[in-house]
Amino acid sequence: MFNLKSEIYLKIIFLLSFTALIGAYFIEYVLGHQPCNLCLIERIPYGLSIILISIILILKKNEKFFIILLILTFVFSFTISLYHLGIEQGIFEESTVCTAKDFSENITKEDLLNQLSKRIINCKDVTFRIFGLSLTTINIVIGLLFIITLTKVYTKYEKKK
Q: How far apart are CA 137 and CA 85, in angstroms?
């Protein structure tokens, strides 16, 4: 069982993850800034963390396992964000992830022409900034802070055993 301080850290990460997702959807649907494919992938860890933290707080079982999953989730987030920042800064070339469309279904000629006529958002294009920083840069900072915090929570859990 976690102590109160660890539970507060998890609740803060839950709220920040929820706020990050709401903010991303607000920027996309209300402000009209279309995300690239990597931006969409960078949302996944936030959704996953909401689910994992909910499981920890509700079930109060296997906390150690779920904390490790959370740490791995944000290591993934941090890594993808660093890669995305590298593309934004011209360090890496855009991969097919950046330009791929969903071709899993059978599409008609008209669908293909319609997709080609739409503006494709490149991963190197920064369409929205906060305080001069791209959302990818902010995601790197958040991911690093979450990794550090969750590692601290994990070590406290280990010391209690």
A: 7
Query: What distance in Å separates the CA atoms of residue 122 and residue 48, rounded to the nearest whole number?
Result: 25
Nearest to 74 by CA among 98, 46, 93, 102: 46
How confident is the model at residue 87, as a pLDDT?
A: 92
Judge contact between 99 and 124, C-beta under 8 A.
no
Give how far the C-alpha of residue 150 lies from the chain's centroid of Cα atoms, to the nearest Å.
16
- pTM across the whole model: 0.82
Print burial letters for 55-90: b (CB count within 10 Å at least 16), e (below 16).
bbeeeeeebeebbebbbebbbbbbebbbbbbebbee
Mean pLDDT of all residues in 70-90: 95
Query: In the 3-class helix/strand/coil scheme, how is 63-91 assigned residue by residue?
Result: HHHHHHHHHHHHHHHHHHHHHHHHHHCCC
Which of 105, 11, 123 lies closest to 56 in space, CA to CA? 11
Sorted by where each starts, the structural domains of the chain and their CATH numbers stand as 4-90+105-160 (1.20.1550)
